[in-house]
Amino acid sequence: MLTALILLPVAAAVVMMVVPARRQELHLPLGIALSVLPLALAGYVFWIFEPAPGFQLVELVSWYEPWGINWFLGIDGISLPMVVLTTFLVPIALAASTSIKTKTKEFVVYILLLEAGMIGVFLALDLFLFFVFFEAILIPMYFIIGIWGGERRVYAAVKFFIYTALGSALMLGGIIALAVSYSSQFGSPSFAFGDLASVDLSPGSERWLFASFALAFAIKVPLFPFHTWLPDAHVEAPTAGSVLLAGVLLKLGTYGLLRFNLALFPEASVEAVPIMGTLAVVGIIYGAVVAIVQPDLKKLVAYTSVSHLGFIVLGTFALTSGGLQGAVIQNVNHGLTTGALFLLVGMIYERRHTKKIEDFGGLQKVMPIYAGFFLFMIFASIGLPGLNGFVGEFLILIGSYTTLPALTVVAAGGVILAAIYLLWAYERVFTGVPDKEENKALSDLSAREISLLAPIVALVLVLGLFPGILLDKISPSTEAVLDYIEDQTAYVVPEPGRLADVYLAGEDR
Amino acid sequence: MTDFLWLIIALPLAGAVLLHFLGRFVGEPLSGWLASLASTSAFVFALVAAWPFIQGGEHSTTVLLWEWMPAIGANLELLWDPLAALMVLVVTGVGSLIHFFAIGYMHGDDRFDRFFTSLNLFMASMLTLVLAGNYAMLFLGWELVGLSSYLLIGFWFTRPSAAAAAKKAFVVNRIGDFGFMIALMLVFASFGTLSYAGIFERADEVLGVGMATAIGLLMLVGAAGKSAQVPLYVWLPDAMEGPTPVSALIHAATMVTAGVYLIARSSAIFEIAPIASTTVATVGAITALWAATIALAQRDIKKVLAYSTISQLGYMFLAVGAGAYVAGVFHLMTHAFFKALLFLGAGSVIHAMSDEQDMHKMGGLLKKMPTTAITMGVGTLAIAGIPPLAGFWSKDEILGSVFARGGWFSALWIVGLVTALITAFYMARQWVLVFLGEPRWSQDTSPHEAPRVMTIPLIILAGLSVVGGLLNTPFALRLERFLEPSFEYVTLQNPPEGLAMFAVLAGLSVMASLVGGGFGYVSYNRPKQRWLDFEDGFEPLWGTWEQAYRVDDLYGAAIVAPGKKAAEVAAFGVDLAIIDGAVNGVGSAVRRLGELARSLQTGYVRNYGVLFLGGALVIVIWLVVGR
Amino acid sequence: MIVSAGYYMALAAALFVIGALGMLLRRNVLVMFMCIELMLNAVNLTLISAGRALNDLNGQVAVFFILVVAAAEVVVGLAIIVAIFRRRSTASIDELSELRG
After folding, report:
1. A361: closest CA among A350, A373, A348?
2. Per-residue pLDDT averaged across B404-421, rounded?
3. Angle, alpha carbons A28-A29-A34 (nearest 5°)
4. Neighbouring chains to B with at least 3 Cβ pairs closer than 8 Å
5. Rounded-to-integer distance, Cα B96 and Cα B453, Å
6. What would the pLDDT profile of B574-591 be if each residue is shown by its tens digit?
7. Any CB–CB contact under 8 A between B572 and chain A?
8. Out of A162, A415, A431, whose CB is closest to B181?
9. How far apart are CA B588 and CA A158, in angstroms?
10. Rounded to 5 degrees, what are φ and ψ at B388?
11. Do A290 and B567 touch (CB under 8 A)?
């Protein structure tokens, strides 16, 4: 089942390669149709997924036995939402790419290969396999930015590639070191996630290995101060690239921190809580402050990602139920809202060929539907209760306070800043009277564009009001992570409130 | 009955959704009537549901709708108790009247249906706020009213000032929310849940004084943002950019009282934290006086009412801070009646004057629009505190309760009394400037009485402003008994017992009202030049008041401008130059290294051959000799 | 007269030096190519004679590898040379410095 989930996009890519290059009108519709198949399969996996700790639908095939490398896949409550999100965003990203006019076939192929890689990363339970997928993603993304990007696309693509590859090179060293110590301790080689977690490490080497993994993921997240590749990459990437970059690729970092750093190096993770928490909170405030004065709409949204992903890292390293659940669900939420914001910026760019805030003004008058969608997504991003962003943010903030009180208070300040940068941008772009000639005749969203945004809007609302749909499946796995850390270290998850147990159980009402 | 409580929220919400998608086809005025129907039916339903409370004897109930964020004890659950019931009745009752009024007021606006969509959305949000059974859901409503307020202040978005005001309102409210969120973190850390049921019962066991004070003060920050108290009140005057029914509904009668509701709801926590309570009362008293002085000198008819609202909200804070929760909620209710009335009256005037809001250009409207003039007159008397109108009873109960606390509160009582005097003065000034004297409007405006859909709500509200106070008089504390179950964890602060004491205190405050009102009437009921001279006599104080102490400029210079500067430094100085500079610096360092190395690569095969051979020779020599 | 391994070695060294000098001094690409072959075969000769002298088969095995690789290299190399010649109609090595850094 899970193998099929990875291979379906690959098969789709192969099908696409067979289509003649000059039949351009076929490429996009066919690509969209093909990319719906993985979505359907992911939906089925979501359906049959039992809300229970541990990995499900596990598949294990030996790949290179002498080194103990396996094709080892499995899914749990932490990876499940990510897989569904990935398959959900790909058809939308493709459908938003009608402005791509050159090499359409190759474009669709790269997106599909990217999808396979992203799904693979989330499903891999063998660290070697994980690394292969982790790196494989860079290649299609490099081409997507480098071929179909904006003016400085080559600069952005190279920066993106080298920066992230540099981080993962260190992680490769870490993986190998772990595997070597495993085989020297247990006598047989293995790269399996569970096996490597059982390696006994000296505190010193655990710290170094933690750092090697953390750096790779911190660059990917991106955590302050490793974030500067992100605005460049976003600004230059085509819309579909931005959507997938913000929606899924960044989550590889937060996912990796949660899945691998916490489980492989529990001791070092507990020690690193203040450092990671501080970096996260600095990122929250810093990203927000920098976003305020960005002159470019897309760059502004890119910096909001820096800020929002800080919340996820904060929740992860708060090591509480609320924090971890919030982090996982916020992964999804951020993918939806920021993905939608990039779609929206792309739509206006297609009309006006500019993303500069100062070039707009009064758009609400000429494009009321567009303005409505934009405002909706802004409020989702700000974290308005009832929409999805709030659920994650609130869980993270409330959950983190018990372990990181001071940092969480500062992080909550990001909530004010979010309102400032987004609403100010909205004011400048949409309100007032349209005074520039080019803006007066803009056409509002077409039915096609509305149908792209509508499913996201629906999910934003559903997840905002019924987060239980996801939380029920997430929480057993996050609780398992916490149990494991408590088991391995002296750390104790704080129980908020002396009488908490009584009320959480719902008794005595 | 309570199983269907969710309908109270769902009805206006359904109205909003329906109008959002179909409003364009429904058009004017039907969409307005639909929205009013949704609001009114919620009122009727609430009345039915509240009947057991009115009869006395029913216990409060919690209704779980569905699980939301169980990890932090935050579900979507409704608490139906007398306090919630009263709030719901006020919100839906006054809200419905304002809906009807708006049908007339918004006539001809090309986004007529949009307006009612937002108005219904606001109703649903506000009802969520007051019906919430835990702090997370209260926060849901709290933010959603902020959203509706944002949408409605910026309703005429083509006016840059309206758009800026909307943003300002939301951002300033967010500053308050910041404090509120931290309060919720503390609550969760102390109790392990955000549910009222789990918090209030055990508050005195779980909370130490320090923690309770911290929570109380942080909640005050949130409440001060939403209820426009010093120092976060600056958004409310700007919010008058919204259509006048919005000002009446959101920025006078309902949303801005959410802060008072929050503190009243959290009375169990404030009960443990006397310092927090005293701070609430002090902030309230300062706000009351501060805003009242500004209201004195405003020329814009809506600005007077806006500052007056801030001032009256200060009274409510003073009450709940003094432990007189019932008095605070009572004033909340009466204020909703007469302030909605005043705003709608002002709306009627503005409507008649073709959107003129400057009182210097009004005058003599009594003859042109008698209904508006008389109803607004009733509202003016009510807010001034003339017995037996509603404002008298509620204001008097507040002042009495504050006086009874003694000590520091005596000082606050004096502030309250002075404010009452000023209030009567500026309200008299407003009424006289608008309705009496010689007409000062230009020839081409022809003021006329509003249509009946606008005047009938005015008349109903005027009626409520007259009799509303009788709900809770010292002779019959009906409201007090009604609300008692909601304040079971606190000892309520009541006005001093005894008719003699009441007579003295009431006499004092009536005297203040009469003096202030009379002075205002006399000063302004004369030719324009005379009262202009009168105002000039107070310079430079008058100018300072007129410019609202220039607080906006101060904030601009002290916070906004430096903040923007800091953001620019961070974005272009730190981020681009230093952090990204370091990243690109590493890149170019590697490149420069490459530049050096590339000179070795000549492209001539023979060069390589020589190097190759030389290298091989070195190895051979090393092998031979080195051994 | 017994031809000892030393003679073979000397011959191989001579061939190698001829090849190396030709490689460095000649300008024609084809000739340079033949010089490379000469050097390879000089090495082959060394390996065989050393293998024979030490009675070790590995020397001959290595030569087979070298022969195969050399054959493959000839194919690729000649193809490149032909391609270059077609484009530039010269076989002078000094005119080719496309790969200068």
Report:
1. A348
2. 91
3. 95
4. A, C
5. 12
6. 888 888 889 889 889 998
7. yes
8. A415
9. 13
10. -100, 30
11. yes
* ipTM for the predicted complex: 0.90
Q: What is the identity of the amino acid at A380?
A: A
The two structure tokens encoding residue B557: 């210079």
Distance from CA of C64 to the nearest CA of B (A): 23
Domain limits, chain C = 27-92
Domain ranges of chain A: 1-161+225-255, 268-490
Contact C32 B605 (CB under 8 A): yes
Nearest partner of B260 among B291, B299, B233, B222, judged by Cα: B222
- The β-bridge partners of B79 are B62
In whole angstroms, give the CA distance from residue B440 to residue B368: 13
Distance from C-alpha of C53 to C-alpha of A251, rounded to nearest angstrom: 65
β-strands A69-75, A56-64: how paired? antiparallel
Cβ count near B599 (within 10 Å): 9
Can you give the pLDDT at residue A415?
Answer: 86
Cα distance from B164 to chain C (closest Cα, Å)?
58
Q: For residue range A35-72, list pLDDT tens digits in order.
A: 999 999 999 999 999 888 889 999 999 988 888 899 99
* DSSP annotation string for B540-601: THHHHHHTGGGHHHHHIIIIIHHHHHHHHIIIIIIIIIIIHHHHHHHHHHHHHHHHHHHTT-
Alpha helices in A149-197 (DSSP H): 153-186, 193-197
Does B175 reach chain A within 8 Å, measured CB to CB? yes
Contact at 8 Å (CB) between B228 and B307?
no
Query: Which tokens belong to A394?
Result: 């609130």
Asked if A130 and A79 touch (Cβ cutoff 8 Å), the reply is no
- Which residues on neighbouring strands pair with residue B300, listed in sequence order? B358
Q: Which two tokens stand for residue C54?
A: 């030490």
Q: Tell me if B70 and A385 make a contact (CB, 8 A cut-off).
A: no
- Among the ranges given (A81-90, B602-611, B614-623), the one the predictor scored with the smallest mean pLDDT: B602-611
Residue A505 above 50 pLDDT? no
Structure tokens at C40: 């390879």
Spell out which residues of chain C touch residue B615, defining contact as CB-CB under 8 Å. Answer: none
Q: Is B192 on the interface with A (CB under 8 A)?
A: yes
- From residue A390, how far is each of A329, A381, B43, B68, B287 by CA, in Å? 10, 8, 30, 11, 32
Residue type, position B232, single letter:
L
Cβ-Cβ contacts under 8 Å for A306 (sequence gap 6 or more)? A222, A224, A227, A230, A283, A286, A287, A290, A291
The answer for B 587-626 residues in CB contact with A (under 8 A) is: 587
C101 chain-B contacts, CB cut-off 8 A: 597-603
CA distance A373 to A445: 10
Domain C27-92 maps to which CATH number in 1.10.287.3510, 3.40.190.10, 1.10.3720.10, 3.40.50.720?
1.10.287.3510
Confidence class of residue A500 from pLDDT cuts 50, 70 and 90? Answer: very low
* Cβ <8 Å between B182 and A503: no
